[in-house]
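# step 3/5: fold
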Amino acid sequence: MERFKSTAAESTFVFGDVIVSFSAMEALRNGERVVFTTMEFKTLQYLIQNARRVISRDEMLNEVWGYENYPSTRTVDNHILRLRQKLERDPSQPAHFRTVHGAGYKFLP
């Protein structure tokens, strides 16, 4: 079930057993806090804001990391891997952070 709640002070997104608070920059999985780096959280936020849309590695680099700080496309792969490890029930068979071979990634709530 996908839910998005937004108020002036708080915005949250719920998928599976995960609750993400954008304003607090944190997430809970099964009621336990998940620790993210700043870039992991920004990657998660960008994917959620663009749910169900295929996002190329280059787009992710431009939008999340920015032009001035342009790492390799492997950086995106590594961040997606860490998001899967932290938020997927079975990281080896992701339900939410999906690879679209030859195109990039998409988030499915």
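# step 4/5: annotate
The chain has three helices and seven strands.
# step 5/5: archive (pending)
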